[in-house]
Design brief:
The chain is mostly helical. The mean pLDDT is 86. Helices cover 72% and strands 0% of the residues. The protein is elongated and about 60 Å long.
Length: 148
């Protein structure tokens, strides 16, 4: 294959790579709990309530973006109304799924930061669990007519 030839895009290969990235990032979310358990220090003063609320709101906004990407942008890619060729679909899906993973991880990281700062569990637990749930919602798939 010469550098001037167009590269072929195999949607199944992209799907496999996406699933590997998804699994690694989901595993890293589990490791946050291990890290927090290892570095827990009860002598640390928790942050002010306003700071906790601000970080929680940033995490919620990030989670909302993930929901938009997953249920509007990605769902639109698989729309039977506007079919798209396999190469374009694979490239667009790859971009949108990776963005979903990164922002899902960021949602959990807001929770991790609050837990690290010894914030109240009512602030950090929903963010962390929400990030895990978002990752599970963003499991990569092919359109129904091409499923494995």
């Amino acid at each position: 294959m010469s550098p001037t030839e167009p590269r072929t895009v195999d949607p199944r290969q992209i799907l496999m790579k996406l699933r590997m990235v998804w699994a690694v990032m989901l595993f890293s979310l589990g490791m946050y709990v291990v890290v927090l358990a290892l570095i827990h220090d009860s002598a640390v003063v928790p942050p002010h309530r306003t700071v906790q609320i601000a970080i929680t709101l940033m995490g919620i906004a990030t989670g909302a973006v993930v929901l938009y990407l997953r249920f509007v942008r990605i769902a639109g890619l698989y729309s039977p109304i506007e079919p798209m060729d396999a190469k374009t679909l694979a490239i667009q899906a790859n971009f949108n799924y990776i963005l979903c993973y990164v922002l899902s991880e960021a949602t959990s990281l807001f929770g991790f930061a609050l837990a690290f700062l010894h914030g109240a569990p009512k602030f950090y637990a929903p963010l962390y669990l929400g990030g895990v749930l978002l990752m599970l919602l963003c499991f990569p798939r092919l359109p129904a007519n091409e499923s494995q």
